[in-house]
Amino acid sequence: MDDEDDLSLLDIEQELESPLDKIEPLTTESVVAKPDPEVILALLTNPQPQQRMLAARAFSDIEDARAIPHLIRLLTDTCPLVRVSAAYGLGRNPSSEAVSPLIAQLNNDWNGYVRKGVVWALGNCRDRRSLAPLADALRTDISAVRLWAASALAQMAEVGYEAVIGAMPPLIEALVQDPVAAVRSNSAWAIGQLCRELPSNVVYATAIDALIEAFAEDQDLGVREDAKASLLGVGDPRGLQLIETLEQEGWF
Known about the structure:
Layout: H1 12-15, H2 37-43, H3 49-58, H4 68-74, H5 80-92, H6 96-108, H7 112-125, H8 131-140, H9 143-153, H10 161-177, H11 181-195, H12 202-217, H13 221-234, H14 237-248
């Protein structure tokens, strides 16, 4: 990705926030306090970028399938604020029709904030087609996008067994070697979510091994706590025994 949207624009505290955190509530000064969907739908095609942005933002709170084709079109708007608002709107109004356009925008958009919103939306779409682009984002994108790609991959738990199996390798890789602790933490959480959907097979065992290693050896306390929480949530006997042993020995 281009240098202009690397970590210099996105500090760690910002990365920990939800993609919706920076969207201020709509007020009477912006559109309306409780927007009328009919009015907002019309504004999605307004020639003024500010109006298109406010309308797309409104669909972060409104669920209305009629907005989906308009939001898909706005993913390629010339204004990045409109594009990111459209991505958030599609995250609140997920659709199988939006998956391919979202993937295309993830691959082509120069703006890290837009890509961050897109990976969130792709996760919410819970579609098998999202697996490969989300895995690639987790491996290669800037840290803010990697952070949300890890969380989005947890949604593969609702897609099916093959998707869960496919999501594990990039998450384990990120948990073991990503340089940003917040990305490792989100990966630990996502692995825990996916492990609940797996039988006791080699993929499950490898994932538990990675969580155990992170709990015992990661240099960041937050990562260790998230790995521990995942092990406790899964209830794996081997992980539970290790947690008990290490805590009894005063490691933590």
